[in-house]
Amino acid sequence: MFEGTIPAANLPKPAFYAELEQQARALLAGETNQTANAANFAALLYHTMPQLNWAGFYFLDDGELVVGPFQGKPACVRIAIGRGVCGTAAATRQTQVVPDVHAFADHIACDAASQSEIVVPLVTRNGELLGVLDLDSPMLERFDDEDRQGLEAVAKIFVESIDR
C-alpha cells in the first residue's frame, strides 16, 4: 500500500520531480492494471502539482483517443489522432507544451477555464502508442521545459508499470 509523503509543491522543480518520481514508483509498485494505475497516477498528479484544473489520460482505442481515468471536470470523450493538443502529441509522439491554448490553432476546449496545457505521449518500449497523459492549467504559461522533462520521466514510470 502507498504510504509515501506527497512532494512539497514549493520545492525547486528538479527536486519536486525527483520526489514525484519516487512517489509514483511507490504508488504503482506491484500493480500492472492500466486502469488502476492510471486512476491513482492521475490523482497523485492532480493533488500534488499546483495550479492544475485537469490531470488524466486518453488511451488509444480503435484509432482514436478515448478518455481514461482523470481528475477534474468532465472531459471530451473522444479525440481524433492529429486533432487538438492531445491528438497532436499522439500523432507526433512528442510532448506538446502549450503556454496559451487559445493560440493553439486546433485546440479542443473541454474546460473553458483551461489556459495552458502539456500533453505527454505514452509509448511502450516496443514503440506502441498507448495514449497520452494530459494536464491542463487555469494559468497561462504554467508549463515549461522543466515540467516537460519531469512529466516525461514520471510518465515513463506509468508506462513501465503496465508494459508487459
UniProtKB/TrEMBL annotation:
Pfam families from the UniProt entry: GAF
Coiled coil regions, renumbered to chain: none
SUPFAM superfamilies registered for this protein in UniProt: GAF domain-like (SSF55781)
Top-level taxon: Bacteria
Stretches assigned to the GAF domain: 53-156
InterPro entries: FRMsr_CS, GAF, GAF-like_dom_sf, Phosphatase_reg/MetRdx
TM regions (residue ranges): none
Family: Belongs to the free Met sulfoxide reductase family.
Name of this protein: GAF domain-containing protein
Species whose genome carries this gene: Paraburkholderia edwinii
